[in-house]
Amino acid sequence: DIQRVIDASVDQIGESTGGDLAHAIQLFDWTVRNLMLDDDFEAGETERQQPLVLEAWECLLLGRGTAMEKSRVFILLARQLGLPAVLLGVQDESVVKPWLTAVLLGEQLFLFDMKLGTPVLDETGSVATLEQVLQKPEILDEMASQAGIEVAFTTDQIHAGDPTSVVAVIDAPPGYLSQR
After folding, report:
1. What is the pTM (predicted TM-score) of this model?
2. Residue 50 scores a pLDDT above 80
3. CB 75, CB 172: distance < 8 Å
């Protein structure tokens, strides 16, 4: 299945950017296959003794993580290949809620859903861009219904066509920001 996604994506966007997108798809696939998905938890729950976020190395060591933690691993792997990647969030009042992982290639953000464990696919079977999802948010509804889960954000919350509700969350823990 992953090879079909790579082929469809490369055919649609061309060889120049397609090679980088193929690498991003393979990194995403590796992350999904090698890290088991833990349920997200709310502050105050006792599933873990403390609601702390695992570092990427801890996720790799334990072989598991929440969708956000797995996204961090994917983002760091993408950075190793020189692919800019971010976690997208949806602005909901004063809080940013994590949403999808994205890789920036050219002028487009290509979307990956860590919770479902699949790239966000458009109607041609290639990896969808943020622009496509903002124009046609039903893509996400279809994916969620096929997986048998509720969507994280409704089309109204995404504000179809209004990119101001979507923000990029950059992974920058204190160790990355030190002035050494």
Report:
1. 0.83
2. no
3. no
